[in-house]
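Subject: Sanity check before I submit

Could someone independently write out the structure tokens for this chain? I want to compare against mine line by line before I put it in a report. The sequence has 205 residues.
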Amino acid sequence: MFTYDENRLKQELATLPPRLRLAFATAAATRQLPCYTRFAPPRLLQAQLDPEALLTALWKKIRAGELAPESWQATLDKLMTVLEKDTRDWRPFDFLAEDALVTVAYAIRCLLDPDPQEAAWAARVVYEAADQAAIRLRGEVPSTSAAEAQILAHPFVQRTLALLDEDLASLKRRNVEDVFLRACANPAFTDEEFAGFDAFVPAKR
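---
Independent answer below. Compare away.
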């Protein structure tokens, strides 16, 4: 079973050059992109952000090996301004759209800051998004070690952790294209799972 160990992940990311850490974070954000498309509430849509275009631009820089920050700080500032506004969920799974934007922010921060912690934080966001999705479907926050183990074993969480592990292994082999293709082919959730989120009705307490 896969587990999330941020300290170990950060240590392993530290052995990679900045370009590959950027690829790791950008892959994580790419998998979350459908969550934004599916669940972005009005306050995010009104900001006229285009996370898909941002990720496309980041992949272009990664493939070209050109990591000049250019005007990315201004892009990050705009993104953070939007994220700092009202965070109220409009629907049970709208938080996934915001988490998707947060991973884009961490990917941009990887471009601007060589600290491996930025890439590790991107991984934490996608792990916690999967964890929270599993918890919301379960209907209650786990309060025992057995319940926490059930959440860790949930397919959402195990799939997310497995993909992060595969990305890290590929990047250790300097295989960026493999990471890109995997990110595009494996969104955080399937269409069937998204349909389940759409149909979800929280239990009344």
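---
OP: Matches mine. For the report I'm noting this point. The chain has eleven helices and no strands.
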